[in-house]
Amino acid sequence: MERPTARRVCFLLKVKADRMDEYRRRHAEVWPEMLAALRETGWRNYSLFLAPDGLLVGYFETEDLDAALRGMAATDVNARWQAEMAPFFESLDGRPDEGIAPLTEVFHLD
């Protein structure tokens, strides 16, 4: 049986300048139950990159983006994590995970 192709997802958010150090600290100690929920709901190869100006670039791979987002939205740990992370971001209405607007991939070197 052929394995489905994973979709590569990239998104941008903006961390407030005065919250960047704490944002880094929080992500150095992500809750084990949050990590487990991400894995269980289909998030793979997930990375966050933070630029000096607060630009946050997120990247992950998933077999089904809608299912991965729905799966996380249904977990209690994600609701708690998103509530704690929301104050870190600029120009965000709602939860950070609701701000994921995938960028269009225009090139990929395989």
UniProtKB/TrEMBL annotation:
This is L-rhamnose 1-epimerase. GO terms for molecular function: racemase and epimerase activity, acting on carbohydrates and derivatives. One of its GO terms (biological process) is rhamnose catabolic process. InterPro entries: Dimeric_a/b-barrel (IPR011008), Rham/fucose_mutarotase (IPR008000). PANTHER family: L-RHAMNOSE MUTAROTASE (PTHR34389).
